[in-house]
Every structure is written in structure tokens, then in C-alpha cells.
Amino acid sequence: AQKITQTQPGMFVQEKEAVTLDCTYDTSDPSYGLFWYKQPSSGEMIFLIYQGSYDQQNATEGRYSLNFQKARKSANLVISASQLGDSAMYFCAMRETGNQFYFGTGTSLTVIP
Amino acid sequence: DGGITQSPKYLFRKEGQNVTLSCEQNLNHDAMYWYRQDPGQGLRLIYYSQIVNDFQKGDIAEGYSVSREKKESFPLTVTSAQKNPTAFYLCASSIGSGSPWTDTQYFGPGTRLTVL
After folding, report:
1. Which of B41, B58, B101 sits opposite A32 (nearest CB)?
2. Residues A75, A76, A82, A84: what is their CA dihedral angle, to the nearest 10 degrees?
3. C-alpha distance from A81 to closest chain B C-alpha (Å)
4. DSSP letters of B48-103?
5. How many A-B residue pairs are in contact by the CB < 8 A criterion?
6. Under 8 Å between Cβ of A32 and A96
7. Distance in angstroms (rounded) separating the CA atoms of residues A33 and A62
8. Are strands A74-79 and A19-21 parallel, antiparallel or unpaired?
9. pLDDT (tens digit, 9 = 90+) per residue, B53-94?
10. What pLDDT score does B40 carry?
């Protein structure tokens, strides 16, 4: 079974609107962390936001927030007030108590002026 | 400035040649990782190292080798045994201590390898 599933290969959003990128995960480990990365066309993976399994509140970092629904095993990224520079690939990842990160296949976001 | 550097940015190799990709970090991180990314794909783990002089194979280690002689450096050699080496290679590092599930990975800018 896939550890991380991103079902939206491509998304479009109007500039200044909010957008939600979906991520579901599969784990039986009670301790895990969820991460979102942005990959612009230059290729570098940029860390955006982190949510721990024991965190009671949803993580927020500037215009990024993580909608963490533990019972549904989902960790959706919400980008508010989209900007043209937000156009990129977005990857969801998870780490359990072991050494390996598990990455999803990514969602391509295009911001339309 | 703290960060991760990878060199070169672009690398061309003839079939049958070994090539080494450089990865250096000055973040004082214990753990380092190498990933491969193919077009339209996610990241696949090649090798990782939690501490100097120790490393473990990831999901796709065949045809690759690494060394970890210094904390700051984790070079990756793509050998001639790797059948389809053309890809984008990303190096990452993390603190490597504390609760594993909180250990954020930070990435370098990547090296794009093309086999001619």
C-alpha cells in the first residue's frame, strides 16, 4: 500500500484565491510527522510546513496551513492568497519512527493571473 | 550562510563511465540522504547515512555507492552498473537526533545527470 497518496496531478487557482492540495497517508505507527515541500522549476525542494501526530493544533506558516484530520489520515495543504510565485510542484511526505521519508507523487499547481 | 551545496548543477556522462556527485552541508546535521527523481515522479531513496562512517541502502541502491568520511560530506558515485542513470539527484540532510518523526529534511539544489 502507498504510504502517501496525492490524488491531484494538477491544480489551477486564480491569483489571490485560496487552494487546497490533498494528501492522505497510511501508517500504523502512533508517532509520525507530516511534511510539505515545494519544488519550483529550478528543482530545489523547499520545506514549507510540518505537522506532528501528537500536535493538537493545525500547523501554520505564513500563507501555508495544514489541515490535519487524524481520523481520516489526511494532511491537506492550504495556500491562502495565491501568488504567481506559488506555481510549482508540491510534495507531501511522512516520516515514522524509522529512518525513511515517504514521498507522494506530487501535485502541480498553476496560479493564473 | 548555512545550507547544502551540490555540484555540479549539470553533469554529462558517457555510457560506461563512473561519475561522482558532490554534496556538502554546513548545518552540522548528522544525517544525510540521496534521492533520485525521474520526470513526473516523486523522490526515491538511494542511500542514507545517520552518522559518519555508516550508511544504509535505500530502495534503489543498485548501481550506486556512497561514502561518509566526514560529517559535512556525502558524495554519491553513479557506477557503470546503473542501467538508467539519467535523472535529477537530490541530496538532503537532517539533524538526525531527537524524535525521528520530527526530523525535517532540508535539500540541496540538485544535480541533473545526463548519460550520452
Report:
1. B101
2. 80
3. 25
4. EEEETTEEEE-TT-TTEEE--SBTTB--EEE-TT-S---EEEEEEEE---S-GGG-
5. 65
6. yes
7. 20
8. antiparallel
9. 999 999 999 999 999 999 999 999 999 888 899 999 999 999
10. 78
Interface test with B, best of A28, A36, A45, A90 (most B CBs within 10 A): A45
Give CA–CA dist B70/B67, Å, rounded. 9
Q: What is the mean pLDDT of chain B?
A: 93
Give the pLDDT confidence of A14-26 residue by residue, as tens digits: 999 999 999 999 9
Radius of gyration in angstroms for the set of CA atoms belonging to chain B, rounded to a whole number? 14
Closest partner residue to A91 (CB to CB) among B42, B45, B102 is B42
pLDDT of amino acid B68: 97
Q: Report, as an integer, the average pLDDT of B30-53.
A: 93
Does the beta-carbon distance from B110 to A103 stay under 8 Å? no
pLDDT at A76: 98
Q: CB distance from A105 to chain B under 8 Å?
A: yes
pLDDT in tens, A65-112: 999 999 999 999 999 999 999 999 999 999 988 777 899 999 999 999
- Yes or no, beta carbons of B104 and A47 under 8 Å apart: yes
Residue carrying the nine cell digits 552541508: B25
For residue A93, list chain B residues with Cβ-Cβ distance below 8 A.
105
